[in-house]
Structures are given as structure tokens and as C-alpha cells.
Amino acid sequence: MAQFLLVLQTVNRVLTALFLVCYSYQFFYIFVSLFWKPRTPKESVPHKFAVIISARNEEAVIGGLIDSIKNQTYPSELVTTFVVADNCTDATAEISREAGAVVYERNDLSKIGKGYAIEFLMERINEDYPRDAFDAFIVFDADNVLEKNYIEEINKTYSAGFKVVTSYRNSKNYGDNWISSGYALWFLREARYLNAARMVLGTSCAVSGTGFLFDRSTVSTGEDGKLEWKYFLLTEDIQFTTVNILSGVRIGYCGTAHFYDEQPTKFGQSWRQRLRWGRGYLQVYRYYGIKLIKGIFRRRRSESESRTNFACFDMAMSIMPAMILSLLILAVDIIGTVGTLVTFFEIGETFGHTIWLIIQPLLRANAMMFVLGVFTTITEWRNIHTSVPKKLLFMLTFPIFMMTYIPIAIASFFAKVSWTHIDHVRSVSIDEIKEGGKAGVKEPASGGGTSDNP
Predict the structure, then answer these.
(1) CB under 8 Å to 265, separation ≥6 — which residues?
(2) What domains can be seen in the chain, in order of their start residue?
């Protein structure tokens, strides 16, 4: 038994070392983000934008988003807002029309998900608008709300030559509980310590569900330039990112374009949403994993092209190995724990030593998450709109939120997963958010929900 435990210890160390090899560059990202900021282009040229919103039973929040789009500092004549009322049974379509959006109603329960809703919208735009009607598209979820200069700022990065641009994702309801704050802190960390660093280093950023822009050319096909959306996996945002990186498109990041979304507060909703994400990552890796790995080693003719190699590595690491390596390490730890307990009873090992072996890997993981939570909370302090006690408290609960990914990751390998609805009930203005998000909470509309935004 002692020899067996020694082998397990060695395997554990090898897996841990491999994990560090795969992800040590993200610690370098933290260093980059602390000392450098992406350069924001100061000049821009006017572009015509189509804002596209997929909404399913979002009558409680859709008006707030459309109002925040209408109140932009960017010229309103260059912005057209489209809403896909996707299998709605409430007043989403009517409210959107009254607010000034162009609304198309979709009723198709055989194809569920935001990807199909966007495909439907692209087909309608092909039919009803000329080819040169829009230069680019900006995607939002119905629960989002924008800072007044959002489109003005993201247009600067777009004008600098980026065909796809993502932005700074903040939360309407950071202070609700440990679940909403866990989501929010993760997205803030993604903006500050992943995408901002990628932008500084000249590699490609990653789209995260909502709040992103893409040029017409990225979805145009054929000589007639018709729009075609082809991203239908459970995590269509990760699929979209991966396909563009493989195509050599460098995705930009605009840290001065801020928007807010509503995070789940119930663990059941959170479980279903993150289970879809986990399963979606598996889908993306199944279809694109080999291509990403080949992209890491493909010979490039220039320095700019060689950045695609690293972008392929970065994306490959982001969508799969962390889950696999973490679960393998956990499995080895569990087997080792059982073996240690047997040894404890056989040769009288100290009980304290046994307990230490059990909790050591969890403590390491929690320590790493704690550091990420602390760094993000401190550096994004002014952008976290809740009370000081809650900022400090939820900094401590962040590792707990992240540890709940362990059973979710395991379940994602076996569970049957489909799109589910997340209730959105918080309609707030930017001013109300900055006052702490205490105003504007509404009761859920009957059948309320959305296309489960990532």
C-alpha cells in the first residue's frame, strides 16, 4: 500500500506540474495588467451599427436596455436596434416596439438557443435591408444596460482595425449574494486580467456571451455578401471566438466600453447555466480542439501571424485542459485519500496527517482563487457597486463559488444538457446601479427568462 501511495503522489505532482505549465502564462497576465493598460484609440470614424438583442420573455428588463441604447453619446442616426422576440409568451415584442426597436418575432421550439435566434435575425436583415446598411453588429442580452459612451468607445477600437471587439462586463446586482458576486467577480477578472493583458501583448482576446461587436465581413458569405450566422453550440460565444482565432482574426478589447448584466442569485439556476457552459466547452473542444493544437505549431510568415499561434494555445488552454487536469488531480487525491485511510488503520498513521492529505489539494485551489478574488476586488474596487462590507465579504466567498465548479464539471461529462431560462427581473438605470443597485427590482414576469446568457 505504501508503494501504491508513493506512485499516486508522483502522479499528482506530475499533473500539478502540467497544470502549472499550461496556465502559468495567466499569472504573467496578472503582472501585465497591473503595470500596463491597453491603449485606447483617440480617433475614430463614423460607422453604421446594428444592435442585435435576443430576448425570450424579457418584458421586465428589455425597455431599460433599449433606453440605454437610445441615450448613447454616439449619433443615433447611425444605430438601429433589432430585437428577436424568441418564442415569447409575454409583452417583450410590444414593449420593444414601443421603445423604438425593430422587432422580429420567432416561433420555433425545435431549435432552442441564442444562436438560432441570431441566425433568424440575420435572415430577416438580408431580406429587408441593403447590403451596405450596416458596417458592424453589436450583440447584447436583454438584461444588459450600457454606459452612455459605450458605442462611442467601442467604435474607437473598431476603427483601429479590429474586426471583432469585446468589452468590459460589469454587474447590475453584485451585492445580492455570494452567487451573483461570484459571477460578477469572475467576469471582472476576465476583463482586467485576461482580455486587457491580451490586448497589451498583441494577442487575441475572447468573447464572453454578450457585449461584443463583429464586423459584417466576419459573417458574410458568397459574392452577394449575405449575412450568415453559423454558431449553434451550447456556448456559441466560445465557438465564435475559436472560429475567428483559427481564421487569423485578432479579437480586440475595449476596456472603456462598460456594460452591466444581471447575474443569477439562485444556486439551481446557476447550476443549470454553468452546466451548460461546461458541456459547451466539451462540444467546442470536440469540434475544434485538434485544429487549435495544430494552430499552435503552424509556421507563420510574419510576427503578426505568429501571434495566432499563441492565440490558439491560449484558447486551447482556456476551453479544456483546466477542467480535465483538475478532475484528474481530484481523482488521484480521492484515491490517495482512501489509500491513506486504509494505511492509517493498518499501520497507525496519525489522524492529523491523514486529514492534512485530504484537505491539502483543496486548500491549494482555494488559496489560488482567493488571491484572484483579492487582486480583482482591490483593482476594480471603484467599479464594484455595492457596500464596502459586501465587497470584503464576497471577496472571501469567491473561492467557495469557484469550488462549486468541481461537481458541475464532473456532471457536464454525463448530464443531458440543453438551453434553459434564467429569470431577469432587475430593471435599473446606470445611476441606480452606481448607487448600489438597490432600486428598480421588479417581480418576475410570468414565464420570465432569457436565452441563458453566458
Answers:
(1) 173, 176, 177, 179, 180
(2) 1-38+45-417+432-445 (3.90.550.10)
